[in-house]
Amino acid sequence: MNFNQVTIIGFGLIGSSIARVLRRDCPAVRIVCGDSSLDVCKKALELGIANSASTDLAEAVQGSDLVVLAVPVGACGGVAEAMAPGLKQGAVVTDVGSVKQAVIASVKRHLPDYVDFVPAHPIAGTEHSGPEAGFAELFQGRWAIITPLPETPLNAIETVTALWESAGSNVEFMEPRRHDLVLAITSHLPHLIAYTIVGTASDLEDHLKADVIKFSASGFRDFTRIAASDPVMWRDIFINNQEAVLEIVQRFTEDLTGLQRAIRWGDGRVLQDMFARTRAIRRQIIDAKQADYRYPNQLSALVPQPEALRKASGS
Ligand code: NAP
User: Fold this and answer.
1) pLDDT in tens, 16-73
2) Contacts of 77 (CB under 8 A, 6+ apart)
3) Closest Cα partner for 71 from 130, 132, 144?
């Protein structure tokens, strides 16, 4: 990759993972951390994954060939406005936001016409946040979706493609609108369901709640992992992908009502047909090699440890 200096704004899980990829593959590249939090800036230096750090975003982007926005999607517009005066002529600006249309609309209007914007989204993550949660292998074998704008020059798209390929990702190009609809079903709806299930459990009376935790391995546990995802990040995703999420929630609600009716009338054929179709989808995901966790060092954090289970059950 042909950069002398890269600024990453938002040095959390995704931003710090990109920094680790650059440290591993391009040790000569200068990495600048830009973050609203002084503690995060200090941590980035302490971890040795940034050469310098600043909470002044215009200062943080000065002299950088590539600027990566890795803040919650609702913060992207404000970050673009704050950093714009510092951007170097010919710089490439990219982002990692989980929603594309809203981020493009909020970022583009603040960028000077002497920089190129290449919106992107790595389809990789964990429920953890912050600079210490990142790791270079996060993107290995995952997809990175790039949603170029009609005016984006090819060389800028190639720059961002090279970044994601270096991280070990497979790159796919998509229309921003299509991205938002696809992600509404593959990512946003599952998170909404997980937040709802875990929220329902948290409203239960205390004696029931204790048993829910004790017997969580029967399915609930998997939802709690998803529902532990960052509240600010997910608030912003739902608000910024409102149209696609509401469309998918409507379809989901209709399908749920169909299953509810089948259960009420004891229609086992409807239930079995549906479950057979969904099992086939799981097989397709396994065949596409998208089923396994690629962060074995964090698996222990996902599986309740014996001590925690003992405490929860009061034994
Ligand atoms: P994260 O770990 O919470 O990191 C975000 C960082 O941005 C934090 O250090 C935060 O500081 C900082 N920040 C927030 N607002 C800021 C602002 N206005 N100016 C400068 N810095 C600011 O979040 P993440 O999981 O890396 O997510 C970052 C982006 O990646 C989001 O757009 C998300 O949609 C996208 N993404 C996430 C995942 C995932 O699974 N996590 C996957 C793909 C894409 P404070 O902590 O002080 O607020």
Assistant:
1) 999 999 999 999 999 999 999 999 999 999 999 999 999 999 999 999 999 999 999 9
2) 106, 107, 109, 110
3) 130
Q: What is the full DSSP assignment across 53-64?
A: EES-HHHHHTT-
Ligand 1 binding site (Cβ under 6 Å of any ligand atom): 9-15, 35-37, 40, 70-73, 75, 78-79, 96-98, 121-122, 125, 129-130, 230, 233
Instruction: Let me know if domain 177-313 sits in CATH 1.10.10.10.
Output: no
Q: Is CATH 3.40.50.720 what the domain over 5-174 is classified as, yes or no?
A: yes
Where along the chain do the CATH 1.10.3660.10 domains lie?
177-313
Measuring CA to CA, how many Å separate 145 from each of 57, 170, 182, 183, 299?
26, 8, 11, 11, 26
Note whether 180 and 99 are within 8 A (CB).
yes
Residue numbers in the chain where pLDDT is lower than 50: 293-315
Torsion sign (Cα): 130, 123, 106, 33: positive
Gap from CA of 70 to ligand 1 centroid (Å): 5
Amino acid at 123: I
